[in-house]
Write a structure and sequence with these properties.
twelve-stranded mixed beta sheet, 14 strands, 17 helices, 494 residues, globular, two-stranded antiparallel sheet, disordered N terminus
Length: 494
């Protein structure tokens, strides 16, 4: 995020594209309320029950749903028939194995390494290969700890009950992340094969470690706040001297975080340390590579479509299109690349996906995977469940409304590796999705996403500049960004 600013960033209210400045007629009120004071009336409940029990549909729903999981009972058979795992446009090289993030929130790191390994496996003729997700996880977590404590220094003058301080102290070292954050990690630390830095109990099940780290970091933030108050109260030190003293103390505190992490996750290679990696290719021929993590990343990066050259196209109908957005106080590497999004129409996201796949590039994307999806079959379809028919209700929130009301956000990152195009018009009908929940989820680890689901619940695709519309590349490179507040839905981490 660069050096710490001397004053809070002014948040700009983004220009909306979906709100219409017009007055709707007042709704007609047919009768006065049963409860004049607003409390729940038992008479209302009796009336509702009388109406419900008279409905054959409601009686059937009650007979079934009291004993059966809601989603299992209401899944539509037609969706299984309409959404086959068949795609007429796929990447020419198949990677493996299907990865598994297990009980952790590292989907963005798995999606990234699933994209990166495509080029490595092609170059080395490998049958199966994984980059170390844990290696990136370690450096991300340590950097997020530093980032939080730097913000604690920067904002030490705010009261503890200030909204910003409360927000920062929430999920302060989330397992999740964003594309620009992973680029920071790749550029600073490189990557290593999984065998060089394998999984541990606490990378695969991160909850206990996160709980301990958050407890210590909140304690550390208070230490730094108290020290800041003491140093400023003396009136004898310059701002530069105060910041220097606070950062020296911060580094002492971070050594405790490093100690906990290295004990639970293992000691990672330094990015410039040399290591040797032995492997077999598809033909059973042994190979060996020697070098550092940064050299490995440089050696096997796709020269035509480098990670650092890619950026995020998003579809956020709350805000104006063809503009650049960022979220205040969001990042992992202090002084690193900020999280940036170019907002555009949904068709541009779809076109970027198709163009990338035809160019042989898997696509990192962010979505709200928990909406209208079924894990065992791997189907993501807005018509998957019969909620409206079963309960005689209408689900009418728009994509913008879901964002405004915290009904939806970017919760999960995966990879698109194929698409089924309409033979007549060439438009996408469904997409092949590589998940990171193991091969027992979906169709041997792969999901199928309908085009309608894409429109409603995909928020981001990452595309190389050379494959993106030129006018949107100009928006990204302009640096003229709208700064959204830290708690904006675009600040959610996949």
């Amino acid at each position: 995020m660069g050096s710490a600013p001397s004053k809070p960033i002014e948040h700009v209210k983004a220009e909306t594209v979906s709100e219409k400045k017009e007055y709707k007629p007042l709704p007609s009120v047919s009768s006065p309320p049963v409860s004049v004071d607003g409390s729940l009336s038992l008479k209302s409940v009796s009336d509702w029950e009388a109406a419900a029990s008279a409905s054959a549909k409601t009686r059937l729903a009650r007979a079934v749903l009291a004993h059966t999981n809601l989603n299992s009972a209401l899944v539509r058979r037609e969706a299984f028939i309409a959404d086959p795992h068949v795609f007429n446009t796929e990447l020419d090289f198949k990677t493996g194995p299907v990865t598994n993030q297990k009980s952790s929130g590292r989907c963005w790191l798995f999606a990234t390494t699933n994209v990166l390994r495509y080029e490595i496996m092609k170059k080395l003729n490998l049958k199966e290969f994984q980059l170390s997700q844990s290696y990136l996880f370690f450096w991300d977590k340590l950097n997020k700890a530093n980032y939080y404590l730097e913000l604690s220094i920067q904002e030490a003058g705010r009261p503890l009950d200030d909204r910003l301080i409360s927000h920062l102290a929430g999920d302060l070292i989330s397992d999740g992340g964003q594309w620009d954050m992973v680029v920071n990690l790749l550029e600073n630390y490189g990557v290593v094969p999984q065998s060089v830095y394998p999984e541990s109990t606490h990378s695969s099940s991160s909850g206990p470690l996160n709980k301990l780290l958050k407890t210590k970091l909140r304690e550390h933030a208070l230490v730094l706040r108290d020290l800041s108050f003491t140093l400023r109260s003396s009136g004898k030190l310059s701002e530069g001297d105060i910041t220097s003293a606070l950062r020296a103390r911060k580094e002492e505190l971070l050594s405790e975080i490093y100690g906990v992490m290295s004990a639970t996750l293992g000691v990672p290679p330094q990015p410039n340390d040399k290591f040797a990696w032995d492997y077999y290719d598809k033909d059973g021929k042994a190979g060996r590579w020697e070098g550092s993590a940064k050299q490995f990343y440089a050696a096997f990066s796709n020269k035509h479509y480098q990670a650092s050259d890619a950026f995020s196209l998003i579809h956020d109908p709350r805000n104006a299109y063809s503009k650049l957005y960022t979220v205040d106080k969001l990042g992992n590497v202090w002084g690193g690349r900020p999280v940036l999004y170019v907002n555009t129409e949904i068709e541009n996201l779809k076109n970027a996906v198709v163009k990338s796949l035809k160019a042989g590039q898997p696509v990192f994307f962010g979505c709200d995977v928990g909406q209208f999806s079924e894990g065992s079959s791997g189907i993501m379809d807005t018509e998957l469940f019969e909620y409206e028919n079963a309960f005689d209700i209408s689900l009418s929130l728009s994509k913008a409304d879901r964002l405004r009301t915290n009904e939806s956000a970017m919760t999960h990152a995966m990879v698109i590796s194929g698409v089924h195009l309409d033979p007549q018009c060439g438009k996408p009908l469904r997409y092949k999705v590589e998940n990171s929940w193991g091969e027992n989820s979906g169709e041997k680890g792969f999901f199928v996403m309908t085009d309608r689901w894409f429109e409603e619940f995909v928020y981001q695709v990452v595309v190389s500049k050379s494959l993106a519309p030129k006018e949107l590349v100009k928006v990204f490179e302009s640096g003229d960004k709208v700064v959204l507040p830290p708690w904006d839905p675009l600040g959610s981490l996949a």
